Amino acid sequence: MVAPPDNDVLWARALTYTYHGSPALTGLSLGVREGEILSIIGPRGSGKTTLLRCLSGQLLPESGEVWFNSGPVHTLTNTAREQLRRNHFAWIAPEPCLVPELNAWENAALPLMLRGRGRRSARNTAREWLDRLDVGDCALSRPVVLLQSQRQRVAVARALAAEPTVLFADEPTAPLHGSDSSQVLRTITTAARSHGITVILTSQGPEADPLTDRSIALLDGRRGGITPGPDAEGSTACSVSV
Ligand SMILES: Nc1ncnc2c1ncn2[C@@H]1O[C@H](COP(=O)(O)OP(=O)(O)OP(=O)(O)O)[C@@H](O)[C@H]1O
């Protein structure tokens, strides 16, 4: 094993993953700097979700390495990877996955409470984030009575309230439309910049590019190109390895 560069919060080398013999990742490498907002752009089936799941320790790559803060993730036990995800990572899925028995603020507060935060403090933080996502009025409602777009905003609030080291956002605006989608993307990137959260988000098109530091194109489980974002010359320099 070769240790990754010190200033990469996440670093992956030569990742491969196949589903029942069908390749999803084919030797993919990348480094992500602390505080960077990186978008991974690719068509359906290009391997975006599989890549995020390998980087976040949800899936173990068949070969290759994943490192977080200079420690190997791919050699951790299941329990240690779960703990890593609970304490340092947050995840936004294309479909809002909320706990149906809990109301909106309880859903948004759940990761904080799982980390040991007291109920009142977790509720206050969760409600602040629901307000920022324009779903403060829904705080006491259960997911079943909310619109899909409101549920997704609650899921985004849940991810940001946890103030993770790394936020994995897999097509986070898929259930949203037009200005709704832009507003939620702006909230995610603004919150990430002000709280120093590293973000890796996926999309099928370049809509998030103006808000990110760097974009990587993915095609058939491989890197297909690199597009520097508008802030690429700013304080969040990028690291790329192929
Ligand atoms: N659970 C699974 N079982 C079998 N094949 C899968 C599974 N998940 C993904 N695949 C296949 O692996 C490849 C990569 O899928 P992946 O979901 O990572 O791509 P994606 O770019 O995120 O696509 P999408 O935008 O549709 O979510 C595709 O060919 C897909 O059909």
Automatic annotation (TrEMBL):
Gene Ontology CC, one term: plasma membrane
Positions of the ABC transporter domain: 10-242
SMART domains recorded: AAA
One Pfam entry name: ABC_tran
Keywords for the protein's UniProt record, in alphabetical order: ATP-binding, Nucleotide-binding
SUPFAM superfamilies: P-loop containing nucleoside triphosphate hydrolases
Molecular-function GO terms, alphabetical: ATP binding; ATP hydrolysis activity; transmembrane transporter activity
Disordered: annotated span: 222-242
Family stated for the protein in its record: Belongs to the ABC transporter superfamily.
Protein's name according to its UniProt entry: Putative ABC transport system ATP-binding protein
Protein's organism: Streptomyces zagrosensis
Lineage: Bacteria, Bacillati, Actinomycetota, Actinomycetes, Kitasatosporales
